[in-house]
Amino acid sequence: MDFQTEKEIISIIADVTGFEEDEISPDTNIVEDLEVDSIKAIEITVAIEKKFKISIRDEDVPRIISVRQAVELVQKLLQPA
Amino acid sequence: MMNTRVVITGLGAVASIGIGKDAFWDGLRSGTPGISPLCAFDTSKHFTHNGGEVKQFAAGKFIDEEKLHTMNRATHLAVASARLAVADAQFTTEQLSNFIVGVSHGTTLGAAQAIEGVDDALVHTTVVSADLFRQMPPHTAPAEIAREFKCTGPHFMVSTACAAGNYAIAHAYDLIRFKRADIMLAGASDGISRIEYTGFNQFSAVAPERCQPFDKNRRGMIPAEGAGMLVLESLENAVRRNAPIYAELLGYGLSCDAHHMTNAAVDGITACIRNALRDAAISADDVDYISAHGTGTRANDRAECAAIRDVFGDRYRSIPVSSIKSMLGHTMGAASALEAITCALVVKNDILPPTINFETPDPECDVDCVPNQARHHVVKIALNNSYAFGGNNASIVIGKFLQ
Amino acid sequence: MRNVVITGIGVLSPIGIGKEPFWDALAAGRTGFRPVTLFDTSSFRTNIAGEITDFDPLALLGKKGLRDLDRSTRLLCSAAKLAIEDGKLEITGEKTHTTGVAVGATYGSLHSISQFDRTAIIEGPRAVNPSHFPNTVLNSPASQVSIRFNIKGFNTTVSTGFCASLDAAAYAADFIRLNRADAVLAGGVEELCEETFMYFHALGYLSGADSSTASCCPFDARRKGTILSEAAAVLVLEDEQTAAQRNAAVLARFRGYANAFDPSAKENFHGTGAGLKRAVLLALEDASLAPEDIDYICACSNGSPELDRTETAVIKSVFGSHAYATPVSSIKSMVGEAYSASGALALSAAVGALHRNLIPPTMNFQLQDPECDLDCVPNKAKQHRVQNVLITAVDPYGQSSAAVLGK
């Protein structure tokens, strides 16, 4: 897994949820462990879209449950078509 | 003093499905959807592109030419609905001036288009027209109504989002019972708003084509605009001037979820309904029809049906529950005012408007939603529900007028 | 019908945070006008406002849930917290359902609405922060009070501009009288922001807009406008018996209220006299009081040339020969024009006057205006027996409101 992408995603999630970065690991369940409701989930998605200049929501988005899944999706979208 | 009975003697509706009470009622009965591609602003970068605009509305028909530029869209709609309601109640402005007349008005975002106009000018660094500033406060809507009809009585503006209409009507009801006014013009308005459209789009809460309340495959609400105005007066006053009476306002209930800004709490909704029933001195068994908040979002309809099951128990499947938002879209603050107008017409005519676009039942929303076709049904008591952002809930009880 | 009393007050103002500091500041004639730091004022002809510079939301509200709350909400929640503490109000168990919230907030937060919209214009609709969308509804600050303090009875936001928080308090009193609630947090909030400042500036309400030095001097012949400020104030209104049952300290009684609309109102407070007179007369009637029973008028005059003249004329018309014997002061000479929050601030000040038998002064008074020649308590607070206070509010779009508090 791309370490830089993971670091940036964790930073975004930390900022939105108010949890510390060292409390968030690749396997953290975003919804259950970090008290993320539907609005915060979208906020995280929007922040990731802005950061990486990608469009997640035009894809058929699988539910991003863990940090690891978020990173994998971002990497997939960053790959040249 | 608090024994004064309050009746509804005039109705003014401005909505995508019809302007004026008759056109509005015809639209409801025929199940006409009022959703179309939005023209008021650019939606090319949004996820959806449709809304419930009142495209056929010509403000100049209701407001003097030279005053038009001093008011924004929500106010145009409000003044028009007030004109329609006052005429419907068979008053001229001169006749109204013999009474203490007050205005109680509601909105979600007030003069949204004025704010948006100012923002456009600020972002593009063009000069902001003084007109836009003057139009900006939300309470310019009731002020223009009061000015139009030379009202000097009690004045009120409430901004409890998607329940504002019911809050405005409820307060007008109290004012008449307190004898602070003989007649109240009570209602609500909202113009189609880019801010609202953007926000709901960003929530992924907007259905792309059709609003399908209670349907298993419902995809969300559809932002819309409109205005609803009711003329309320004491029964004594109405009888004295031989006014035609649509219905009686029997009471209301409020509650606050105190839970989440946008996700409804079932216990907040049930508390609200129970407060309304208690205030109207009726039991759950007395309710013959429910005008649902029914926005068509997955969350609202599920929560609302859970609350209905809780309050109405075994009877819940025998009480028709329809959502006119299936036709109008969500007219924001105006919604519950237009729904109150609907309830007045329901108890007067014993006809239920349908929930259109209904295809697939959802076991979580297994109420009788009057699917797709209006039908005849004797309604002595109608319950008008509304649940707003912030968990501000309101339910009003409208009854067939019996001597 | 039930009697309504006031059992707690929470205030955040440019001259002090907390009920006692606020009352002390009023007594000392302290003014709260300073150069704005919250936004860039270089495109305006004045840079003075009543900004609350010592506001620490983290200290008052704690970190949890603070991040997405805008300034209006933070101010209002802080005022609510102080009011609950001051009134020793317990909102638990069944009381969560018999307690309500009624707030005057014309726009909610105009800043939140405008920033959300501008982000969408500049960056596109898909770039807005969804967590900020709930802040764009006008009832957001009030609703957050319910969420934070678990208040479920009812929650209503009143948006009548200059009259908003006076109207909210009256709405609260009505609910108590109607047995719909036993206690209500009633108040108002107005945050200082570029957008509201721009509005006041564009409509010519602000002193200093003609490039002279900004000054808020109500009733003074030199007055040319007001100074915009921010504030949040919440009062605990309660049923008298419920308050007695819990041994609450009663600060004042809510004795009466009325409002009226004046269709002849024009720009900048012109043509509002008939409406204000009607509101005052009806409020006195509602309180079962005669004009001579009023010991202090907490005026809405704010340095706007026409408003102060109109209010003076109305007082003379209603009070007749008693007008010159009744002190009339404007706390806006100290706290500025707090728009939606002005009524709640005035109520809070009126309670102080009743409690301390001390009438706050009209500060910055130098030059007598023959058309505003009542006793405006110039520049120094006055010790005076205060049994009943009249509070007024006038909105230039046509509404006037008046309330009466008693000991």
In short:
Chain A has 81 residues and is mainly alpha-helical. Chain A has helices at 3-17, 30-33, 38-52, 67-78.
Explained architecture:
- The complex is a heterotrimer of chains A (81), B (403) and C (407).
- In chain A, 57% of the residues lie in helices and 0% in strands.
- By secondary structure, chain A is mainly alpha-helical.
- Chain A has one domain: ACP-like (Non-ribosomal Peptide Synthetase Peptidyl Carrier Protein, Chain A).
- Chain B is an alpha/beta fold.
- Chain B folds into 2 domains: 234 residues, 3-Layer(aba) Sandwich (Peroxisomal Thiolase, Chain A, domain 1), CATH 3.40.47.10; 149 residues, Peroxisomal Thiolase, Chain A, domain 1.
- Chain B has 13 helices and 15 strands.
- Chain C has 2 domains: 249 residues, Peroxisomal Thiolase, Chain A, domain 1, CATH 3.40.47.10; 151 residues, Thiolase/Chalcone synthase (Peroxisomal Thiolase, Chain A, domain 1).
- Chain C is globular and about 60 Å long.
- The model of chain C has no long low-confidence stretch (mean pLDDT 97).
- The chains are: A mainly alpha (81), B alpha/beta (403), C alpha/beta (407).
- At the A-C interface, helix 3 of A face loops of C.
Keywords:
heterotrimer; A: 81 residues; mainly alpha; Non-ribosomal Peptide Synthetase Peptidyl Carrier Protein, Chain A; 0% strand; C: 407 residues; alpha/beta; Peroxisomal Thiolase, Chain A, domain 1; 2 domains; 11-stranded mixed β-sheet; two-stranded antiparallel ribbon; 13 helices; 15 strands; globular
**CATH-derived topology of chain A:** Non-ribosomal Peptide Synthetase Peptidyl Carrier Protein, Chain A
Secondary-structure element string of chain B: EEHEEHHEHHHEHEHEHEHEHEHHEEEE
Number of helices of chain B: 13
The beta-strand count of chain A equals 0
Number of strands of chain B: 15
User: What portion of the residues of chain B fall into strands of 2 or more residues?
Assistant: 15-25%
Which structural class matches the secondary elements of chain B?
alpha/beta
Rough shape of chain A? globular
- In whole angstroms, the N-to-C terminal distance of chain A is 19 Å
Tell me the series of helices and strands of chain A, N- to C-terminal. Answer: HHHH
**Average of pLDDT of chain B:** 97
Name the chain pair whose interface involves the most residues: B-C, 72 and 71 residues
Radius of gyration of chain A: 12 Å
> What's the quaternary structure here?
heterotrimer
